[in-house]
Amino acid sequence: MKFRPSGLDGGWIIELDRISDERGWFARAWCAEEFAAHGLPAAFPQANMSYGHRAGTIRGLHVQLPPHDEGKALRCVRGRVLDVAVDLRPASPTYLQTSAVELDAEGAAMVYVPAGCAHGFQSLEDDSTVYYLVSQPYTPGAERGLRWDDQVVRCEWPITEVIVSEKDTSWPTFDDAAWRDEHRRATGEGNQDQ
User: Fold this and answer.
1) Is the pLDDT of residue 103 over 50?
2) Which domain holds residue 134?
């Protein structure tokens, strides 16, 4: 496996190290030792799949509040997606920066999104499927999100005719004071002001 930084502190793009011959190729898709050597979780208690019927579909931007915040290792196993992460960790050197990585089934690269980052993706082709490992079991009461078209984080979605769920269009923007206050308390940033 080949690890290269994604642009967010603690984020990685993980490419396959393929061994090819006349039959095709073989590659290690997951290795706990290599993940641990890069400071990533070596165990993922949950795996999810997401399927998008149509190109333009956006899922996100989702984040779990501490102590239930999730690191995610994602791979597109069918079609093509743009995977987007936004650093919402106030103490991070890449706070409020965005990373966007195109993933496709042919390349089979994986992206690691650190815990504390909002995450989403847009299907760039019909019938796209994403498979991902999650470092914490999903906790419904800790789920939060940012609007996919938030003007502070400014994600650049390549397909402008979007399909977004009602839930994802109802998330607040980063400028929403109540959202910011709750997020600051949950991440411990609010305690620094006292």
Assistant:
1) yes
2) 43-193
pLDDT band at 179 (very low <50, low <70, confident <90, very high): confident
**Amino acid identity at 58:** I
Number of residues that make up the chain:
194
Q: What is the pLDDT of residue 189?
A: 67
For 159, counting Cβ atoms within 10 Å of its Cβ (0-12 exposed, 13-18 middle, 19+ buried), the class is middle
Q: What is the CA radius of gyration of the chain?
A: 17
Please state whether beta strands 24-26 and 19-21 pair in parallel, antiparallel, or not at all (unpaired): antiparallel
pLDDT at position 153? 87
- Partners of 24 in the β-ladder: 21
Q: Identify the burial level of 19 via C-beta atoms within 10 angstroms of its C-beta, where 0-12 means exposed, 13-18 middle and 19 or more buried.
A: exposed
CATH of the domain at 181: 2.60.120.10
Residue 148 covered by a domain: yes
Amino acid letter, residue 118: A
Report, as residue numbers or ranges, the catalytic residues.
Answer: 62, 132
Mean residue pLDDT of the chain comes to: 92
Residue whose pair of structure tokens reads 């936004």 in the numeric block: 86
The total domain count for the chain is: 1
Mapped onto helix, strand or coil, the DSSP state of residue 152 is: coil
Which residues on adjacent β-strands are paired with residue 117? 87
Let me know if residue 66 belongs to a domain. Answer: yes
Residue 141 forms part of a structural domain: yes
Q: Is the pLDDT of residue 51 over 60?
A: yes
